[in-house]
Amino acid sequence: MSHSEFHNLLTTSSNIAFEFAKNYVIDYLPDDFRYDVHLNASLDDSSLKQFDIYPDDTGKTLNTIEAIEVVNLLNRKGKLPVWIDISVDHVYKKQTVFKLICAGRYSDDEKEFYYSNNGTGPFGVKSPDLPIDYSEGIKFKLRSKRKSTLLKWLKRL
Fold first, then answer.
1. Domain assignment of residue 102, given as a range
2. Assign residue 11 a region: left if phi > 0, alpha if psi is -120 to 50, beta otherwise?
3. Is residue 38 helix, strand or coil?
């Protein structure tokens, strides 16, 4: 897939996830988008020969990157992760930040993309992370990026 085709899918999927999130959250969501990309979330077996797999991606996350950086990162030799879960994650510095959780299997065969029947290629639009006490129909506040960073730091102690 070309970079421009993938960029169009990213833009379309971001806009769908953006509008979908408004059904769940009370936060104001700016229309300036950034992305936190979690690579190789599927921890795939490198013996799967029909895919390109990048084991060094395991555990890597790139934070608050722009759409073009996402395209350059994930479009490898014309191949894409076979699934990319996209959801609004938080608001940071007047930007809506999406979480992209990516498979480790890369393919150029669109039949391998999990969500191609939806017209979004590898992108699967998900709701924002629901709070533990979530009640259907009750909007909630997105988590604070600062709090999540603090929690990660505290867990290391």
1. 3-156
2. alpha
3. strand
| Residue range 4-41, pLDDT digits in tens | 999 999 999 999 999 999 999 999 999 999 999 999 99
pTM here is: 0.88
- At residue 153, does pLDDT exceed 50? no
Main-chain phi, psi angles of 125, to 5 degrees:
-75, 125
Q: How many domains does the chain have?
A: 1
Among residues of the chain, what percentage have pLDDT more than 90? Answer: 73
Cα–Cα distance measured from residue 74 to residue 52, given in angstroms and rounded to the nearest whole number: 12
Distance of CA 109 to the CA centre of its chain: 20
Other residues' Cβ atoms within 10 Å of the Cβ of residue 126: 15
